[in-house]
């Protein structure tokens, strides 16, 4: 039986663009993150409590500020920053929280808090409010508006498929006493290309390049952008233009071009250029070889993958973790799990510490083949090697254990998650509930996991509510339906309260596309 055990609570651009990613922030999702490292327990509790309040008051009509007032004496800049990071997906509530904190006598927001809020508003497409915030920052001179804030804006508009607005934001930098430089142009082009707005990026580049003296890095961003959408011809034209302008072409620029050619289906042409690099004084590096490894993985040519890998070993070149993961995943797809383990060991020996994706590729193989003991052994290895499992890891293992009827081990894995500092999200709870509902005699356990999720304040998927209701209804357990619906009504979460109607059958069931894709991806 389930027992309550939890408290409340791509191929990226290679090294040429690493500097562009230095400002990228990774904000944990609400109620689905590892414990804040090196934080005082009191701070963490406050972050959890405030995040819950924001989550429970998403409706503009909710009296959020009244609920926040009880925390006014405990507010600090660090606390505000942590809450904003945690509540990145709660745009409207996060903004109200920011404004509320600003009214506390003696409190001033940090530059980091303003930056996080700009990211939140941009990510939630509240661009008008975002610009109002920037104008207020400028006029009140409460803090300096940096170039990095505009880089966030470029990313937000590009992600929202508003490339022209991203370009206009670049032009508005001067309104905030920032003169755009070549690095700002690189950030704009990178943001556009990352979201496949390469045509807009190149049009703007040709319009302004005379005023910025672009270098090989700028051209490489565009070359890689065309490669990502499979247009090797445009990449080739840009590479030729770069040479004609006399740009100092280094190995990073060549890597951009080679990868664009490979992605455009011109691997043979790329290999010819690769063979001529040394004659031009350019020594291929590990990233150069990795480009061909990824191309061979895509072509399912495992033999050529190991041929390139052996050549790298002779030159004492080491792959990065991402490329190792590509090979491991391909080996597992080809039923070569032993070779995948050998590569895993090699990564450790060469200092390329395997990440959670390395292990998840092999874990997926074990789960697909119902290899319980090997899956659990790999889970134990992750813990020993200080690689924390993520929700995909746990969801795969839990699905496997439920499917094969190993409910004892399922309970052990569930309990161990708390010790490892993992807080289950709605998808992990859904794995448990959906899986147990399909098993004979496990409906009571499914109900208890559902109640545990409600107690934790995590709104369920509508499909999960409907599945549990149908199973209970099928057995005539109307009293149990009423008990669960009553508990949902008493929840502090408005979303959970609304789902009580679905549980009772008073509101039609409707699964959103996002929840279906989120659940099925695990």
Q: How is this structure best summarized?
A:
With 522 residues, the chain is mostly helical. It contains 28 helices and no strands.
Describe the fold and architecture.
The protein is an all-alpha fold and 522 residues long. The chain has 28 helices and no strands. α3 runs parallel beside α5, α11 (216-228) packs antiparallel against α12 and α25 packs parallel to α27. Mean pLDDT is 88; it is low at 1-39.
From the structure above, extract its key features:
522 residues, mainly alpha, disordered N terminus
User: How would you spell out the order of helices and strands?
Assistant: HHHHHHHHHHHHHHHHHHHHHHHHHHHH
Mean pLDDT: 88
Low-confidence stretches: 1-39
Secondary structure: number of strands: 0
Shape: globular
Largest sheet: none
What is the structural class?
mainly alpha
* Total helical elements: 28
Radius of gyration: 26 Å
Quote the distance from N terminus to C terminus. 23 Å
User: What fraction strand?
Assistant: under 5%
């Amino acid at each position: 039986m389930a027992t309550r055990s939890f408290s409340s609570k791509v191929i990226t651009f290679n090294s040429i663009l690493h500097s562009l990613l230095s400002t990228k922030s990774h904000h944990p999702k609400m109620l689905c993150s590892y414990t804040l490292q090196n934080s005082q327990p009191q701070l963490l509790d406050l972050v959890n409590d405030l995040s819950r309040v924001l989550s429970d008051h998403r409706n503009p009509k909710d009296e959020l500020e009244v609920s926040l007032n009880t925390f006014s004496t405990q507010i600090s800049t660090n606390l505000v920053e942590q809450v904003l990071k945690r509540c990145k997906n709660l745009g409207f509530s996060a903004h109200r929280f920011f404004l509320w904190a600003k009214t506390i006598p003696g409190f001033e927001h940090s530059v980091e808090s303003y930056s996080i809020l700009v990211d939140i508003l941009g990510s939630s497409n509240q661009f008008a409010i975002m610009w109002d915030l920037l104008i207020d920052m400028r006029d009140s001179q409460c803090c300096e508006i940096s170039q990095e804030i505009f880089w966030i804006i470029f990313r937000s508009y590009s992600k929202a498929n508003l490339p022209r607005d991203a370009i206009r934001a670049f032009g508005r930098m001067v309104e905030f006493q920032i003169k755009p430089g070549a690095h700002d142009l690189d950030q704009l082009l990178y943001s556009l290309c990352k979201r496949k707005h390469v045509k807009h990026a190149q049009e703007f580049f040709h319009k302004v390049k005379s005023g910025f003296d672009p270098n090989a890095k700028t051209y490489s961003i565009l070359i890689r952008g065309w490669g990502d959408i499979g247009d090797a011809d445009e990449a080739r034209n840009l590479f030729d233009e770069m040479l004609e302008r006399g740009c100092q072409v280094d190995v990073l620029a060549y890597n951009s071009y080679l990868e664009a050619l490979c992605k455009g289906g011109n691997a043979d042409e790329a290999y010819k250029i690769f063979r001529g690099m040394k004659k031009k004084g350019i020594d291929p590096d590990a990233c150069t070889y990795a480009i061909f490894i990824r191309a061979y993985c895509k072509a399912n040519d495992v033999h050529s993958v190991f041929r390139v890998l052996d050549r790298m070993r002779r030159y004492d070149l080491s792959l990065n973790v991402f490329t190792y993961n590509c090979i491991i995943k391909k080996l597992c797809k080809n039923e070569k799990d032993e070779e995948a383990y050998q590569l895993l060991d090699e990564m450790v020996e060469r200092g390329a510490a395997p990440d959670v994706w390395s292990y998840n590729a092999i874990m997926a193989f074990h789960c697909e083949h119902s290899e319980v003991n090997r899956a659990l052994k790999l889970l134990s290895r992750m813990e020993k090697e200080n690689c924390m499992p993520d929700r995909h890891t746990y969801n795969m293992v839990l699905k496997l254990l439920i499917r094969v009827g190993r409910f004892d081990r399922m309970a052990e894995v569930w309990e161990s998650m708390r010790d490892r500092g993992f807080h289950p999200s709605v998808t992990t709870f859904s794995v448990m509930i959906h899986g147990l509902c399909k098993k004979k005699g496990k409906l009571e356990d499914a109900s208890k996991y559902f109640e545990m999720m409600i107690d934790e304040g995590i709104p369920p998927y509508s499909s999960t509510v409907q599945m549990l209701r149908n199973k209970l209804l099928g057995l005539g357990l109307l009293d149990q339906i009423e008990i669960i619906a009553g508990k949902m009504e008493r929840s502090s979460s408005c979303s959970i309260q609304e789902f009580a109607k679905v549980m009772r059958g008073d509101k039609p069931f409707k699964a959103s596309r996002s929840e279906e894709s989120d659940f099925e991806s695990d």
